[in-house]
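Run Transport permease protein through structure prediction, thanks.
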Amino acid sequence: MDTEVKNRNCSMQDYFQKFYRYRYLLKELVSRDIKVKYRRSVLGVAWSVLNPLLMMLVMTAVFSTIFKFQVENYPVYYLTGLLIFNFVNEATNASMTSIIDNAPLIKKVYIPKYIFVLEKCLFAFVNALYSLIAMFIIMLILRVHVSWTIVLLPIPLVYTFLFSVGLGLILGTCNVFFRDIGHLYGVWTMAWMYLTPIIYPIEILPDFVKSVVAFNPLIYYVNYFRNIVLYGMIPSFRENIICIGIALLFLIFGLWVFKANQDKFILHI
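Sure, done. The structure for Transport permease protein is below.
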């Protein structure tokens, strides 16, 4: 028994040592994805700022004018929700196919396979930082008051990143064995967006719908982000516990699922 525990501890220690050893590869993979995304694009990285701005103009025209949503500073309200959702959506969708997409490399050389999932989440994190520029531009144009709580902005982004890595590890593992996951997840993310108060205030929902939506993890990250950016509120201890608790739960479960199945990937990719 002692030998088994010792071997397990050594295995976990080796796991993190390998991560440190491959940190430069991780950096290069993120850099590669950024270059590939904006290759042959005239505006290049500027699209990461322009895209949320254009989406904001369309959604503001539709929902604040046609549907008469009475939300103060609606463009910023929308952008704060969109930024968090796009972060998770991009990170998890890319993570889901990361193992299969890198099959030729995995078959040729040894690389810790979770590196590919982590890289996709880091790439989405970088894109989220670009989207912050669009948000600040709109806040400046609309003269939205910026509270000192803005310094807490990295906290919800880190929480969201950890949540995305955990969910990405689960999806990446499942997609290796069941390729239908990709099609099902596309439908789910569409429903997920409408179950998250991004384009509408949650107050308009009936009580029974609110009780269902309360199980949506994204609500807590969106609300946390909005509170510090738009409303100048300091999130409570309870809110922090919920957000970090959800993130760690998904991360730990994702690591467990991925580690338990990664040796079988080579037979299915």
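The chain has eleven helices and no strands.
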